[in-house]
Amino acid sequence: MVFILTIYITLVYAILIASFVYGFIKVPHFKLKATKPKTGFSVIVPFRNEEANLPHFLKSVKELAYPKHLFEIILVNDASSDKSAAIINTFIENGLHHVSMTQNTQKSTSPKKEAISKGIKSAQYDWIITTDADCLLPKLWLQCYDAFIQQTNYKLIAAPVNYFDVTSFLDRFQTMDLLSLIGTSIGGFGLGDPFLANGANLAYQKKLFTALSGFEGSTKIASGDDVFFLQKVVKNNSGDVGYLKTIQATVETKAEPNWQNLISQRLRWMAKSTHYTSCFAIVSGIIVALMNLVLLLLIPLTILGHLSLQSFLFVVLTKFIADFILIFKTSRLLQQESVLPAFVVASVLYPVFSIFIVVLSFFSSYTWKGRTFKK
């Protein structure tokens, strides 16, 4: 009975990951061609206590190769207590005139969604792009979005996020996890049932946001400005969404600096995953969690003789191969092949880490940007 159930879960998991790989392949790789810029963009950047990151972010804004009369940067100050506002004002005074700052004065259980909504209200262009103040924007970022919009009829466009300055094992561990998530995100788009996106690189029409009442329905959940709005758009019309699959439009950020911050980040992600409305997302999450749990349970079962070593190795190798294919394909897209030598060690650690986060989420709140949130 144990053997049959184990094999069944393993095969279902392998089929799921294979479907994401298939979906990943189906999404065409975008190639930027010379086109006359036409699209106006309002880039919304909520921030809180980002004095260490804002100079680098604003420098990348300054280097964007896109006509300045066709985009604006709206930074929404979410009750910062450091020198963030002063840094922004200095950049504006020194010539970054298409950058403005506003204050998010209201208080709610979802401050980031509130900050984005406030920024959108003052946006002068119909296309909104959200990103974060701890990110670096690629030089051809807006060109890629503009060309993609001119070529398609999408109303919401997701694009990749990548880590830079990857040096430690913790960085590589997070990078491989992110590669898996990006691969899954693209795969969902390719399968016609997307359920993941990253708010650090997400674009949508202002009129779409208004027509669907923005974040209404998820305002009591602290995070999830990206996935909940994506799932709302897909539910309304799945043909309205597309994925901008190119490294030229990939926003970069830094991995969490320590395990404590990483755990807090994953607890935040776990909190929003329990409110998903996409059936595909829910089923996928359950299958992945079951597979990780099975791997942990098989260790004592194999030691006690309830499962043969051959069966245990079959399960482990099947999962490792499926995961590696998805991560490898995404690493090629984002030019992160250098992290792959750590794949085996990271894969052994990940089920332990994943189940630990699931269990911890039932008992623990999480802290983010100096605020404590309950699940």
From TrEMBL:
InterPro entries with a match to the protein in the record: Glyco_trans_2-like, Nucleotide-diphossugar_trans
GO molecular function, one term: glycosyltransferase activity
Pfam families per record: Glycos_transf_2
Occurrences of domain Glycosyltransferase 2-like (ranges): 42-174
EC category: transferase
Keywords associated with the record: Glycosyltransferase, Membrane, Transferase, Transmembrane, Transmembrane helix
Top-level lineage group: Bacteria
EC number: 2.4.-.-
Record field: transmembrane: 6-25, 276-303, 309-328, 340-363
Keyword presence, Protein transport: no
Similarity remark: Belongs to the glycosyltransferase 2 family.
Protein name from the UniProt record: Glycosyltransferase
